[in-house]
Amino acid sequence: MLPRLVVPLAALLSLRFVSRAHELPKPPSAWFAAEFFHHVLHWTPIPNQSESTYYEVELLRYGENLWKPIPNCSQTPMLSCDLTMATLDLYHSSGYLAKVRAVNGSQCSNWTHPQTRFTMDEVTLTVGSVKLELHSGVIRGTIHPPRPSVAPAGDTYESIFPHFREYTIEVRKVPEPSKVRAFPQASLPFHPV
Ligand SMILES: *[C@@H]1O[C@H](CO)[C@@H](O)[C@H](O)[C@H]1NC(C)=O
Ligand SMILES: *[C@@H]1O[C@H](CO)[C@@H](O)[C@H](O)[C@H]1NC(C)=O
Ligand SMILES: *[C@@H]1O[C@H](CO)[C@@H](O)[C@H](O)[C@H]1NC(C)=O
Ligand SMILES: *[C@@H]1O[C@H](CO)[C@@H](O)[C@H](O)[C@H]1NC(C)=O
């Protein structure tokens, strides 16, 4: 009776060892860096990573329980990955969790999680462009909000950040290096495009 039990147990154990063991060190840190519809996960490399080391990234929409692999992120030797396409609904969601691990051949590391959940609060506000025109001694400036082409129709900067349309303007006279700060914290007329 005993040998019959021992065989399946040994088979189970060897299966465990054949599956990818957690032997690599995990990436020391991971964090999000995002601008409007440009959402990027960054991580630091494992010590002594080799040419064959790559990283796997998975994403979880907050409130759900299915981790989704992001195949685009599994390329050597990337230390960041653009998650914009996978998080297009960020501004209408409660955010996302991400995790990253190192893989080398049959070895993989434990997962590293960024310390924060990725929400729209993590998104750094930017200006798309500024156009200046000079007419009879008067400089007129037009501020254009960012217009990323991947943003779904209707997801404009103005509709998503209705309360963040205040700009600080700095005016510098060249060639003198002195800096004049005009209208500190002033709210300027805004010209949506
Ligand atoms: C992976 O995580 C397990 C459980 O937390 C831990 O016991 C193990 O030491 C970790 N392995 C590495 C290589 O950090
Ligand atoms: C990295 O490689 C160096 C030189 O080969 C070795 O001394 C060091 O212990 C290695 N570090 C780790 C964390 O494996
Ligand atoms: C990755 O795998 C290669 C080939 O098996 C090995 O030479 C190298 O030492 C491994 N690197 C790490 C960081 O474990
Ligand atoms: C993956 O990469 C391809 C080519 O660079 C790109 O067209 C596609 O949108 C990416 N998919 C995701 C989910 O980021």
Q: Could you give a quick summary of the protein structure above?
A:
This protein is mainly beta and 193 residues long. Helix content is 11%, strand content 31%.
Can you describe this structure?
There is one protein chain. With 193 residues, this protein is mostly beta strands. It folds into 2 domains: 121 residues, Immunoglobulins (Immunoglobulin-like, Sandwich), CATH 2.60.40; 56 residues, Immunoglobulins (Immunoglobulin-like), CATH 2.60.40. It is 11% helix and 31% strand. The chain has a 5-stranded mixed β-sheet, with no helix packed on it. It starts with a helix and ends in a 13-residue tail after the last strand. The structure holds 2-acetamido-2-deoxy-beta-D-glucopyranose (NAG) (4 copies). The site of one 2-acetamido-2-deoxy-beta-D-glucopyranose (NAG) has 4 residues, from loops. One of its GO terms (cellular component) is plasma membrane.
Q: Which key phrases capture this entry?
A:
disordered C terminus, mainly beta, 13 strands, binds 2-acetamido-2-deoxy-beta-D-glucopyranose, Immunoglobulin-like, 2 domains, 5-stranded mixed beta sheet, 4-stranded mixed beta sheet, 193 residues, 11% helix, single chain
Protein topology:
Elements: H1 2-18, E1 22-24, E2 30-35, E3 38-43, E4 54-61, E5 68-69, E6 80-82, E7 96-104, E8 107-109, E9 123-124, E10 129-135, E11 138-144, H2 157-160, E12 171-172, E13 179-180
Parallel strand pairs: 1-8, 2-9
Antiparallel strand pairs: 2-3, 3-6, 4-5, 4-7, 7-8, 10-11, 12-13
The structure holds 2-acetamido-2-deoxy-beta-D-glucopyranose (4 copies).
One 2-acetamido-2-deoxy-beta-D-glucopyranose binds at residues 47-48.
Keywords: Disulfide bond, Receptor, Signal
GO cellular component, one term: plasma membrane
Pfam families: Tissue_fac
